[in-house]
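Can't attach files on this board, so I'm pasting raw text. These are the components:
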Amino acid sequence: MIAGNESIAVEAPEQTRADRLGAWSILVRNPITVACLFVIGAFFLMAIFAPWIAPRDPVKQNYLAMSQGPSAQYWFGTDRYGRDILSRTIYGARPSLALGVLAPLLAGVAGTIIGMLAGYFGGWVDRVVSRISDVLMAFPSLLLGIMISAALGPGFTNLIVAISFAFLPRFIRVARASTMSIMAEPYIDASVASGQTWFRILRKQILPNISGPLIVVATLWVATAIRIEASLSFLGLGTQPPAASWGNIIRDGLTEMLVNPSAVIAAGFVVTLCVLAFNMVGDAVRDVLDPESRD
Amino acid sequence: MTQPVLSVSNLTTSFLTNGGWKSVVRNVSFSIAPKETLAVVGESGSGKSVTALSIMGLTPPDRSRIGGSIKLESTELLKLSPARMRHIRGNEIAMIFQEPMTSLNPVLTIGSQISEALTLHRGISQREAESETVRLLERVRIPSARTRINEYPHGFSGGMRQRVMIAMALACRPKLLIADEPTTALDVTIQAQILDLIKTLQEEEGMAVLFITHDMGVVAEIADRTVVMYDGETVEAGATAEIFSDPKHAYTRSLLAAVPKLGSLHGIDQPTRFPTVDRITGVAKEPERRANTVNEEDRPVLEVKSLVARFDMPGGFLRGPSGRIHAVENVSFDVRPGETLALVGESGCGKTTTGRCIMRLTTAKSGSILLNQADLLALDGRALREKRKGIQMIFQDPYASLNPRMTAGEAIAEPMLVNKLADSAEAYAKVGELLKRVGLLPDMAGRYPYEFSGGQRQRICIARALAVEPRLIVADESVSALDVSVKAQVVNLMMELQERLKLSYLFISHDMGVVERISHRVAVMYLGEIVEIGPRAAIFNNPQHPYTRKLLSAVPVADPTQRQRKRSIANEEIVSPLRPLDYAPPKRRYRQISPGHLVMDSNLDRVDLMGSSNRGPFCK
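---
Top answer:
Structure tokens for the assembled complex are below.
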């Protein structure tokens, strides 16, 4: 019998940490967050099932029904080419959400890898990575997006590349700093001592511990990505007509805003609602996963 | 009998938690007479600190409830308004805390922090406050107090900061001083100085002291009466001498059995386990004698030869290094199979750096580290990983040395998988075996670290280290952060594993009591060098180097009858190994006292002089 067995009975483990309760169960305790999650869910359903939901073809022009106000036939009215604004708004969710998810995801994956390498190896790797991300950070995301899509030309793929680039330094910074703080933990020394390679240490020891703040950054930037997509499409650099996007619906509606504001109002409203919902959820996720980083 | 300074009766403190009110202290009663020292002793979670906070009225008002009565002389503290209580705090009751490094405001000078307390509580002028501050700093024996009042806390070492905290506490001549683990964060020689200081000041000022600690040695050294707490309740109270000589409660007995007593192994050659006491019945079981695990003929597992590690101190912007820390200087020793070599010394003496150099976690400047005759310093990459698994390390902080996102089983299996010692199924089968071996249950493998207590986590760390079947384990202060009774259990486990697996340990520690129990040989480090090395009995019974003697005499003895006569209050600090860039370490010679017992041939004064100033480590 080992003398130490009594310790199992004697010492009581300390209280369960809050983050172990499960982030999800804390998130859904707040009714506003739940409402926002429903809004986001609805937007995704709308984007996925657009062909079934939309009453009309969003690109089909109808010269018999141009610039109409809301009616029983056209709920949100029609634009100056006679296209149904309701259908265009429903289809417009597709590029916005695709970009809103893909850009932070791409930037997140690439930024995490680069940031972790910089944080782990330090030295010149870190200096080079940090200076490049400083330079990228110096430009506002929107400006960088405009510059890159202007250089590459408009188009959906180029847009994703542009916005991912603009987001990259945010992820690099968070991944690098978190990696460096985890590196100081004795369990990393223990892993080195037990013969683990740097790749395995990064993957198995560091990545699970820094994923919290990275998920927070990703959710917070989804809203920004949607806003930037709308802005670039509005400027004519994003989704190209006739394909619908919330940005170019507003752009098309702008010329006749004073006589027929329904396009601007409808698209403006969904952009605002979508960005707001993602922002609120992003804040809630941050409060749960990474409470220290609160402003 | 005079009126007690403080009388606490039926104190019950509860905190609001998720599940409602939870009482942390229940029905605690004691009183302190003027000029008396009462120790409240217990392990973590016993409610001793909450008792102190309740007396000070420092528990969060909206989430705590205090019942019973706390009387300061004849004033009932629990009924006072917050404003009156604020007046009592500082004026009548003062408190010093455990962490001297964070208890002072870093952006204010020492002088202004003390004189603020004076002008606030005693209503004296700025000018008077200043001269009073100097007087107070002199009382706590801070050298050249007049010039040091203009310095900031970062220039003060831990011991000196604790002196400043005591000076602040004394500023208003309190009737009662509450000291909450005031020496726990300090080195043992500094601890001895601070304890002496508190004792002397208590006599000079005539105040009562409530001393909160987990260390029975400190209790024996300082307390007139003792209250033993366990799980929020008083289990035993009485005169300190009585509690030590005739403990009534089973818990007190088990606590005392776990306290390392220096000199208790006199005449025993082999390391010896701590006696175990049943918590319920209080029956003590003396440890059996241990078989010899060391064969003198064997080739050493580990040979360290002339190891040197130095770190440059960065200078200012665009300037070269301003100085160099000689962390490890020409250190040589070896460890035989089945042997425990203890590396002892105080903070900054280079013992941890030595351990990290051996693990190749820190880069050594020169020297060689032979593990089974292969030089680790000459290896790299795959070859290094292959050889290094022969040594494993256990760290100090059991909370930080396990990855919070990995279950105990994953943490233990990982080294086996990485080194391809087993495939996944075999590894997980072995995890259960290893958990059993360190005194845990195999079905605990699926739990995460936060579900374990400190002692259990340290057992998991030991299991993880054992997973790759190392020959040598470097234990860097591995039991220092644990409660006394848990510490004894983990030390016993380490010794048992040594017998069974013929492990060698490099046991890095500042705790001489534990070192006496566990080690075969001891090396004493001071300022990066080994000043004395030899068999345990030789070092403890016949210490030759002045530093070894100082270290041993500073250890508090857990026996109130042997309470040391008051020494003259020393105020020297631990010297820093920071040297100028052109510093060339002197050639050292060692003198042999008896077989295997070597002592550095130089005197401590000379070493001290070269270590220079009496200030914090980074002051120029």
